[in-house]
């Protein structure tokens, strides 16, 4: 089958991430798309030593990529709105589909670019423009297509969320944390875009237009940053049962549509109040589905590349596969794994919680630990309760290291056979999901 | 444009929910699909008084729907695996696309049904089969298409999660909560499918096949229920910093693939550990994107209908719209809201957190409350701190009722003008996001 040919403009963080993901996962990605996907032309002012460009045409003038007659999809990852706008317009005029991660470009010039794409019969895909690797644009345009969206609220700037999380966890001051975020590379030397909410406003405008079916209107967003949040406000919020998050909120009301980015106090028990550090999340309220939440990394080379490549696959599927089979039933046109080896539970490794009743005298714990050690399982934590009403037996609770299920079950048999242990050993598997 | 014609089989909970959502949101759904979507034929053993079937052909024999030459898409919402399997096979043989919410059917007979659909050039869509309204199947097949999925873990049975949440929150016993869940309609009279993990195993098999590109293998899942979880285990888990959740876990390891459903202890700080009540969530770890989480209602008439209708829109988009414009840039082919009224911040209503320094003497609080009352804003909570080092002024923290931003700002001006108030009034907007 004729491959889908991609031209990649920009080899910075996201560009090199996209190059890496497409190279590393090439076979799985092509099996999902139903057609090979190849980067055939890269436009970049200079090479990036992280990318092996052997066999790929390289141009110093990115407009050469947009005009290359070989190419089906132009991927714009140069950022900014001046050259990027020209590049995307040129690609569209040359009949190319466009994939971009550029939130400012879409928020500020999306209306004109979409109209041009429509006229040319090509598409502009921009999943990576909002919330990095979280497929929130696909969720709003497709997954929630049945719903009237009532409102959405998002933590859509990781830098701001990192600062607020540090302020809460460590009682630190805004300016102090900002300096650390800059040192860690989370925040730019000029942090205005992040901490004053402009970056979040760009993303909110895009989400709101998808939710409510309206043109992009960046100039209508109310924007307030987090630089005025004092440590005492963070503490009082906690005392009242709330957390402060920098939210982008879009809401359809009878009077009109609210579009606003500002520090917001939300009940601490809400899931979105517990989204910490640089992570992003978007909470969407639909009339049929109720609340749904989408969580993940909102920035970074490979998370953003994940969304860029998903868009490339989307375009490739639409271009190349018969319409009735655009997406294969199990996602892969040729199953990546037609004959997988499914492990029996015996072979699975996890950590364990064990609870048992043991006689309250010296040496019992040592016997149990020895049995576990023979199974190559160690004790990571222990709760030993006082005997109840002077009973001779006490509950013993153990958290173990990871071990193989079969070994653990044999160890439990041996522990249950100890005369000092009364009754069975309760076990629950423990996963860190980290 | 020629409408896409839908035949709906089954008018139970999900069937009548689907009918309601398609009727209520018809114009927005058609604008998203780019083509009108109409239910033209309903198959059900009896009418459902909740559905106004005027103008819709009704058959008592659902197979009449599957054979109706007018119909493009057959929606199977009858449940079970015997008649449903025959119905879907008949629909496929008659060249219909199929949308189903039937997890057992897909998990147990998906391989044969997908092969039949492939041969006929039609598609079977099953977003509603896993985690109700959460678009997790779309996320795995499309949104995360760039990734090698390393593992996934899901709370994919709401009944089980409700029981475990009640056990933790209220220290109740399994059997006691189960009875309540049955009374509330969350659990069936025979709760085996839910509490022994069979329902979760059906869903896990589907997710795992999408993640790893492998055939559906229901008989390979290890399944352990939650009926053995004792209240003391719930407490000890909490003491150790963990929570117990009934998880479906699929993981690709060097030795093979793990497929297992069992009670699992996970660190309390993980987002998924905080998914409570009947809600579902799926945590997916991709090699490029890292961890992403998808949260929402996993069951219920309209949440499930949300997924059923999204699948109908998906098929309709593929059937009727030029391939390059399968999904409109902003999701709607004709913008639902071309000239929206975006509210100015002055017009927005929220609640507020206020912090100020006031002299520590009688009457000050009354003056402040009066100013707020004139602005139709009341005080919902108050923290008044002791004066620091015998200072004459004390921090005063107020949580207000919802009020209009402009009124609140005027009230703040008046509060700041009080001689007893020193310095400015800090305000942070409060949203319940409930």
From TrEMBL, chains A, B:
Alphabetized, the UniProt keywords read: Amino-acid biosynthesis, Methionine biosynthesis, NADP, Oxidoreductase, Threonine biosynthesis
UniProt lists the family membership as follows: Belongs to the homoserine dehydrogenase family.
Pathway of action: Amino-acid biosynthesis; L-methionine biosynthesis via de novo pathway; L-homoserine from L-aspartate: step 3/3; Amino-acid biosynthesis; L-threonine biosynthesis; L-threonine from L-aspartate: step 3/5
In Swiss-Prot or TrEMBL terms, this protein is called Homoserine dehydrogenase
Q: Which residues form the active site?
A: 203
The Gene Ontology biological process annotation of the record reads: methionine biosynthetic process; threonine biosynthetic process
Q: Does the keyword Glycosyltransferase apply?
A: no
Q: Which reaction does it catalyse?
A: L-homoserine + NAD(+) = L-aspartate 4-semialdehyde + NADH + H(+)
Q: Which organism is it from?
A: Simiduia agarivorans (strain DSM 21679 / JCM 13881 / BCRC 17597 / SA1)
* Annotated NADP(+) binding sites: 9-16
Residue ranges of domain ACT in the record: 353-429
Under Enzyme Commission nomenclature, its number is 1.1.1.3
Amino acids binding L-homoserine: 188
Keyword Amino-acid biosynthesis tagged: yes
Which Pfam families does the UniProt entry name for this protein?
A: ACT (PF01842), Homoserine_dh (PF00742), NAD_binding_3 (PF03447)
Any one GO MF annotation of this record: homoserine dehydrogenase activity
